[in-house]
Write a structure and sequence with these properties.
Length: 378
């Protein structure tokens, strides 16, 4: 066996060590690449980001590239767990750690924050998102014309708000978003920009959406983590004694599923209309829109738990007619049935799976209060 094969065998054996069997940056199992200057094992997608940091990280394929003895020894003396103890020693509990399913800008800025800017070694490098206050300009989509205009945003932990202004010199904001009801999630495909961020909040009991972006990936991710930081401190006060493990999933929520379905009215005799549906499982809300980028939903469905009278059935009630999509779903609530239809059986199965995940989850006292208010309004 030649030196090349010996080195390759030793390198692949390192994947069996704890921490090395998944990407050091996004956690994807089975890394096929490595940074031989940092000493970490990474996935193909993250290796592409590392290639843009040549002064810090140089990458090679574990299978296809030649590894000399010195490089293998360097990997042997480092590895994912060892390197994370250096570069992730001071990651704030509110900072979003992206996974392999997250968008490019989140993963890239996480990698740059760790290795290029060393934000989690020196806390002084975290001021952009950790002070409880941030202001600056973002491009915001107009509610009526769909055009993006530059708007001033101000985030204040002290006031518990995120405000935006049509003009920077104005004293009165166009809108004031309460931190207690604010969510942020990256939506690059929906917004049509790689740095697109969707902000949602409650207005008069209904969900309102703002769509924003910034041309600088670092800036938009700093805004995202600044929002998470302010919400973290709000929730720590609102729920004293609750652990970080339980609080961090509530800082921001990704929508678990979105897509088009058809919907009919409460009598199941009305025409079926194609609508864009968004499931916010953390908030137990299924929202539907005429267009994915509408500011307000045309309607919302609260998904309670099974022991409160909520259930999901495959198919439409007998006698339902008029749908163009063949695969029905019936959402049963204490007040009415909602009849939907999917274009394919796979979409039907995927939606039903996500709905049932929400319904089997017990309701908290806070969710019972939300349900009561929701039923009064609807």
């Amino acid at each position: 066996m030649g030196d090349k094969e010996v080195n390759r065998k030793e390198l692949l054996q390192l994947l069996l060590r704890p921490g090395n069997g998944e990407c050091a940056d996004c956690g994807k199992p089975g890394p096929e690449w490595a940074s031989y200057t940092l000493g970490i094992f990474i996935c193909l997608s993250c290796s592409g980001i590392h290639r843009n940091l040549p002064a810090i990280s140089r990458v090679k394929s574990l299978e296809l590239d030649f590894w000399d003895k010195e490089q293998v020894q360097f990997m042997l003396s480092h590895g994912n767990q060892c390197v994370s103890l250096l570069f992730e020693v001071r990651v704030p509990p509110f900072y979003y750690r992206p996974t392999s399913g997250d968008c490019q800008v989140l993963r890239e800025q996480w990698i740059r924050a760790k290795y290029e800017r060393k934000e989690f070694i020196l806390q002084a490098n975290q001021e952009a998102y950790s002070t409880g206050y941030r202001e600056g300009n973002l491009w915001k989509r107009g509610r009526d014309n769909g055009h993006f205009q530059k708007r001033k945003f101000v985030l204040s932990e002290h006031e518990g708000t995120l405000k935006y202004f049509i003009k920077s010199e104005l004293k009165e904001p166009k809108a004031e978003l309460k931190i207690a009801e604010l969510n942020a999630t990256f939506q690059p495909d929906k917004i049509g920009n790689p740095n697109g961020l969707q902000l949602t909040y409650l207005k008069d009991g209904s969900t309102r959406s703002l769509f924003v972006f910034h041309n600088d990936g670092k800036v938009i991710v700093d805004w995202f983590n600044a929002i998470r930081a302010v919400r973290y401190h709000y929730l720590k006060v609102a729920f004293p004694g609750v652990s970080d493990k339980d609080i961090t999933p509530r800082l921001t929520r990704n929508f678990v599923k979105e897509g088009y379905m058809e919907k009919t009215g409460p009598k199941q005799k009305e025409s079926f209309r194609k609508r864009w549906f968004t499931l916010d499982s953390g908030d137990r809300r299924l929202m539907y829109f005429k267009d994915p980028l509408d500011a307000f939903a045309k309607g919302e469905i609260f998904l309670g738990s099974g022991d409160h009278g909520y259930s999901i059935q495959e198919g439409c009630p007998a006698g339902t007619v008029g749908q163009h999509f063949a695969y029905g779903i019936t959402i049963i609530t204490p007040d009415r049935k909602y009849v939907l239809a999917c274009e394919t059986d796979s979409e039907q199965a995927a939606w039903i799976t996500e709905f049932r995940k929400v319904i089997v989850r017990p309701m908290s006292p806070q969710e019972c209060s939300v349900e009561a208010n929701f039923r009064r309004r609807h």
